[in-house]
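Supplementary Data S3. Sequence and structure tokens for construct A.
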Amino acid sequence: MMNKIEPGCLPPLPLGPLPRRLSRQSVVAWGDNRVTVGGDAPVRVQSMTNTDTEDAIATAIQVKELARAGSELVRITVNTPEAAAQVPYIREQLDKMDVKVPLIGDFHYNGHALLKDYPDCAKTLSKYRINPGNVGKGAKRDPQFAQMIEAACHYDKPIRIGVNWGSLDQDLLAQIMDENAKLATPKTSQEVMIEALIQSALQSASKAVELGMNPNQITLSCKVSGVQDLIAVYRDLARRCDYSLHLGLTEAGMGSKGIVASTAALAVLLQEGIGDTIRISLTPDPGAPRENEVIVGQEILQTMGLRNFTPMVIACPGCGRTTSTTFQELAAKIQSYLRQQMPVWKKTHPGVENMNVAVMGCIVNGPGESKHANIGISLPGTGESPAAPVFVDGVKVKTLRGEGIAEEFQLIVDEYVKANYHAKN
């Protein structure tokens, strides 16, 4: 028989996310653009190009697109001598376009050689990503890892030690498996894998510090593909160190699956105060823009109330009362317009990212939601009067009618931004 729960006997749940885990703080910079990571800095959104880095122009263009979408750090593959040689030219092209986003070099297998042989590449990059599972095997591993750390120290570059379960250090994994087999109660294979990931990251960080690396310049990541695995890994990793942490599924997947998986995993960790940078590793649909992964990352943080990036559009899902597609089209148009305007508005109208816009489809929730938003419009539903009342800061200011509702409403949004978010001097 189940125990009866008396009203009021459960403790109240805390409102909002837990306090951020206090991690070490580093600065990733290019020119006068200094991006603080960790500590009390906001959770940063980063992304990665999928162009061939040897194609400097294509890579620079994609970096610009990602930065314009809001990526605060952009990682590029540096995998060949030709790619390493192009890094300074990529940076030069970005500077000409006034794109100051810091570039992170992603190294596997031959990073030690590329950083040594291409000093201009090493100097130009703002940060290095090092995978402990791919720095070398056997007797080569430690010396080649040391070469990369020495380059980071010499050029004063922060690093991310990025462990990945698909390229885990096999010697370390075998060692942990052997030790586990001797236990009276062996851990599960999942627990062994998680421990191997964490030990790889922590041991590599300790070696880097021994070689002269400033602990404040180290970020760790332990990426896996499964949601529950990722949550388990980072909870344990956060408990065992104070390094800043980069979050993300290593392969989130395509479309809604990738978005849902990333949101499910990261939302839990971010709610618990874990995570200093995030990347949403979406597999792009054919022809889809690369910057979608940036938008998803921003929307996760914004919908959780952790950061604001762009004005949010609140729109109803539609029902039998809203047979017209007008509200759907208007919501999409306004959302697209707001995001397109943000690169300009964030420079000239600070605070506009906190604005809320409601585009509703009928009289049931329309007026109420519109009053709660900074600007709201309630479009007519099935059988309703062909009129669209507009509310500004809770007050009905006018009613729109006719074919030009979308254009008139967009003008109202523009006027509100100019009147309420004053341009910087």
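Construct B, processed identically:
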Amino acid sequence: MIDARTIGIGCAVLLPMCIAVPAAHADNRRLNESVVANVYAAQHQAGCTNGVGVNPALRRAAQLHTDDLMNNRTLDGDIGSDGSTPQQRADAAGFRGTVAETVAINPSLAINNLDVLHQWYSDPRAVAIMQDCANTLMGVWSENSLDRSVLVAVYGHPA
């Protein structure tokens, strides 16, 4: 059975003459990496001298919450559908330290770096998290669907 995700865009018009094509899956790695680079820049603009590294446990915590936000459209912040907090998700993913989180959501197919920065720079809490020099590790994950794009960044400093 062919679902709507496996049919190419041109097939919507020429359906009788189309063949099924595999669904495309976005690779958001470049977006995710650029968010880390932008946080590094924000920290240095605030006077920080440290680096910002990617941590696999924090990336996993970000992925868990991104998936939750994609699957539960009533959610739009840090609290998960199960009531979990960013700290609880990071702990469960194996991170040992203190964490904070920022979330960007677009009601559209795509989200880009400018969308993310616009949302976070208009939120004093998010700016404070981004500019916190103690946050030397990060995990970023993003996902897209036809009507919703989500990016979650989890920031941490080791115990």
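The beta strands are 53-54, 97-106, 137-144, 149-158. Residues 77 and 90 are 16 Å apart (CA to CA).
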